[in-house]
Design a protein that fits this description.
alpha+beta, 18-stranded mixed sheet, 10 helices, 20 strands, extended, disordered N terminus
Length: 483
């Protein structure tokens, strides 16, 4: 199980999304990773190569757990950082005399509206850990949040300073939600249903900075910048983090047609990991994302591509989603509907004894009720059995087509960037899980990805991960135990 989990973590970045061909003027000398020749060394040799690359990566970041900034942040967490309230709340209550709402088979006696605003500047202040009281002392500040605390668990001086500064973009994001609660009514002695409408407003930053020093020497620096479209969707996000010798960079761009994401992680002058994805949309907006229904949301997505690199191993994925989605629609329209329980049992109610003048009449009504229930159940069961048969036929057709379309309009590969050869590609096939329930055989269909190697062997991800990665798993577990 552990091996399968690690393998899935390695393979997870393969997002099957659509990719543009290389713009290189000489594609023969620098072909797309999907067009590279296969490595012919065999499954065992390629497993060993992937494990070696993984172990090399773990070895290079082995000292991350002892990084002075991380040690300080771990101690900051041990000291139970002060609770910082950044909310501004407004609470309004309207009695039922002015408005009544039908819900949960009751008339709501009250309608409650709660408004919350999240404003980081409310938390501005200097927080110093008091070694005597084991609490945080706060003094006012106009432009920052600053924490003073010991760098280590047994430290006896506040030699660490973590400073956070923030600039407001002047824009905010509003999220609304509705929930229900019960409130005791002392006049009636009943619990009345209350609808609670919550409106939460989040202040959007244009800049967020964080800097940590220990004994006046900088050990961490984070800088980030943000810009937004008029509908508050992010337009550009840039984040840069330095943690001693380690660096991380993140960039997100969105022009309402193309959304891109880039991430890199390095140590010193060496880049240890990169992740990049590009997604194409017909028209990306907040309104389209939130208010579109079912296929309308899926229709926004056109294509995407992604690559993930660690050491000399690159995983890439591409898919022409729009074409595949349109072809799948013809089958999805055939999906059978499960029989509705209410259609068969909705009008059948158990008799109330108080409605009958004698026990005999009541018992007669009970017998009639039982007869109706049995007849309804027989009809429902027959409808459900038909539905199950129809579902199996539909699922087999749907997932067969889905596997074919993934193979036709998508691609995913694992590449050895040192030799510029494919370790494996991914293909999809129909998977049939057969379950026996008494005398009934039920088929549950799905799509199964398989790794295809240079010798044309096909292996499931689970089987591939069962052997050959023991040392990598041990290294990862040993590293995690240090944190």
């Amino acid at each position: 199980m552990k091996k399968t989990t690690v393998l899935l973590l390695i393979a997870a970045p393969i997002v099957f999304s659509a990719c543009k061909k290389s713009n290189d003027s000489d594609p023969e000398s620098n072909p797309s990773i999907y067009e590279l020749p296969y490595d012919k060394e065999g499954v065992t040799a390629n497993k060993a190569f992937m494990e070696t690359e993984g172990r090399d990566f773990v070895k290079k970041i082995d000292d991350l757990s002892s990084n002075t900034a991380i040690e300080a942040l771990k101690n900051f967490n041990r000291l139970e950082a002060p609770e910082i309230d950044i909310t501004v709340s407004a609470f309004r209550k309207i009695t039922a005399r002015s408005q009544e709402i039908e819900a949960l088979n009751n008339v709501l006696s009250t309608l409650t509206t709660e408004r919350k605003s999240y404003i980081l500047s409310k938390a501005f202040g200097i927080y110093k850990y008091n070694l005597s009281t084991k609490k945080w002392d706060r003094t006012a500040a106009n432009d920052k949040i600053e924490f003073h605390f010991p760098a280590t668990e047994n430290g006896n001086t506040n030699n660490t300073v973590l400073t956070i500064t923030y600039k407001n973009s002047g824009k905010s994001y509003v999220e609304t939600s509705t929930s229900y609660d019960y409130v005791y009514n002392s006049q009636t002695g009943n619990y009345d249903v209350v609808e609670i409408n919550t409106e939460e407003t989040y202040e959007l930053p244009s800049e967020l900075m964080a800097r940590m020093t220990i004994n006046s020497s900088e050990v961490m620096n984070l800088s980030s910048n943000y810009s937004y479209h008029e509908d508050k969707l992010p337009q550009l996000i840039n984040v840069n983090l330095s943690l001693g010798s380690y660096t991380a960079k993140l960039e997100t761009k969105n022009d309402n047609k193309l959304a891109s994401f880039k991430f890199s992680f390095g140590k010193g002058a060496e880049t240890l990991m990169t992740f990049e994805t590009n997604s194409n949309f017909s028209s990306l907006s907040y309104d389209n994302l939130v208010n579109s229904k079912d296929d309308e949301t899926l229709d926004l997505f056109v294509s995407a591509n992604t690559t993930f690199t660690v050491g000399n191993v690159t995983l890439g994925g591409q898919l022409d989603y729009k074409t595949m989605h349109n072809e799948l629609k013809t089958v999805r329209d055939k999906e059978p509907a499960s029989p509705d329980w209410e259609t068969y049992f909705g009008g059948i109610e158990y008799p109330n004894y108080n409605d009958y003048s004698s026990y005999e009449e009541y018992q007669k009504a009970v017998n009639e009720y039982n007869a109706k229930r049995e007849a309804a159940y027989n009809l429902y069961d027959a409808a459900y059995q038909k539905y199950e048969k129809d579902r199996e036929v539909y699922d087999k057709e749907y997932y067969t087509l889905l596997a074919n379309l993934l193979n036709k309009h998508g691609a995913a590969v694992v590449v050895n960037t040192k030799t510029k050869k494919k370790i494996a590609a991914v293909t999809f096939q129909l998977k049939d899980d057969v379950h026996q329930y008494g005398n009934t055989t039920v088929h549950y269909y799905s799509v199964e990805p398989l790794l295809v190697f240079g010798d044309e062997s096909k292996i499931s991800f689970e089987v591939f991960g069962e052997t050959g990665f023991d040392n990598l798993i041990d290294d990862v577990e040993a590293l995690l135990e240090k944190f």
